[in-house]
Structure formats: C-alpha cells, structure tokens
Amino acid sequence: MLAEQLWHKIFGMPQIAVIMGCLIPITGIIASYWYKAQKLRSEHELKRTLAERGMPADEIERIIAAQAKEPSDSGG
Length: 76
Fold this sequence. Notes:
- With 76 residues, the chain is mostly helical.
- It has a domain at 29-67.
- The chain is 80% helix and 0% strand.
- The protein has helices at 2-10, 13-52, 57-68.
- The longest helix is centred in the middle third of the chain and has 40 residues, at 13-52.
C-alpha cells in the first residue's frame, strides 16, 4: 500500500510531464553533440585515408571543402 502510494506520488501525471520536459531537451543536446563528434571523426578518417594514399595537401583540402558544401550553396 505504501509503495503503491509512493509510486503514484512520484510518477503521477504532473511529475511525468516535468520529467519528460527535462529529458527531451537533454536528449536533443546529447544527440547534437554525438552528431558533431561522429561528423568530426568521419572527416578525420577521410583525411587520414587520403594522406595514406599519398595525396597532396591541397588536393585533400579541395576534397574536404567540396564535401563540406551543402546543396543550397551550389547556386540556383
């Protein structure tokens, strides 16, 4: 009985709303940092692979710059 009352007190509708209101933004922040870390890791892997192939630095810079462009930057 006491456990059931405590459960309903902790996990009642207003408390769930507050908990979810905090968890959703926190999850978004974590996801954005995870995305940035994965993107950075991918870029470093590409640079390392291109350097191992013996490509010159200016060629690597050109490839990275072309990869970084978004479709909206291509004009039109």
